[in-house]
Design brief:
Order of helices and strands: HHHHHHH
Number of helices: 7
Distance between the termini: 135 Å
Number of strands: 0
Strand content: under 5%
Length: about 210
């Protein structure tokens, strides 16, 4: 007689599917570190060349990939915890939906990663590279939050200081009117005039 306790339930399968998705996601996380490091390096090179627009695009792409991975990992971990702790029949539809979403996002991450050759296009000047940069910029416009944009701007500013040094403030112009140069004769005349102006004051002091 077989052991009926060894039967794989729908709950067991859901937990396994979630684990497999998370394992796949972690594989992408390890691979994507290589790409995000490359994107940071590209941002540095673009800043050194004075091209802040392409530097910003590289950092925005990096931010999106990192956020996508972190968000998906969190969702899958939460689903796995639910499957373990809640009556499976009550959340089965949510789990199935979560697995479908996870699969979709994994495909999206795979497509977005594109490999090193796509990252290199972020600093290219060819028509193909410029078209790719425009496509990525438009795609990111609807997927990065205002907070993400602010964090990217902060990272850009920090990298700019690292590459180019602190910004040099423009010199404040001297608004104090310069005194016209005088000749020795004019200076002597001014001293005599000053002495004559102070003479009544001295006489008044002596009279007291």
């Amino acid at each position: 007689m077989g052991n009926t306790n060894s039967r794989v339930t729908a709950q067991d399968k859901a937990i396994l599917d979630l684990k497999l998705q998370r394992d796949k996601l972690h594989q992408y996380q390890r691979r994507i570190v290589l790409l995000t490091d490359k994107e940071t390096e590209i941002a540095r090179r673009m800043l050194a060349a004075g091209d802040k627009k392409r530097a910003l695009l590289a950092l925005r792409r990096k931010k999106y990939q990192e956020q996508l991975l972190a968000k998906t990992d969190g969702q899958l971990a939460q689903l796995e915890q639910l499957v373990r702790n809640v009556e499976f029949a009550l959340i089965q539809k949510d789990v199935v939906f979560g697995l479908q979403q996870g699969t979709r996002v994994l495909k999206e991450i795979h497509a977005e990663m594109g490999g090193i050759e796509h990252v290199e296009k972020l600093m290219g000047e060819s028509a193909d590279a410029v078209a790719y940069q425009r496509e990525i910029s438009e795609m990111l416009g609807g997927r990065i939050t205002n907070q993400d944009e602010e964090e990217v701007e902060d990272e850009l500013a920090a990298l700019d200081r690292e590459v180019n040094g602190p910004a040099v403030l423009p010199a404040v112009p001297n608004t104090t009117p310069s005194r016209p140069e005088t000749t020795p004769a004019e200076e002597e005349e001014e001293r005599q005039q000053a002495q004559e102006e102070r003479l009544p004051e001295r006489q008044a002091m002596l009279a007291t």
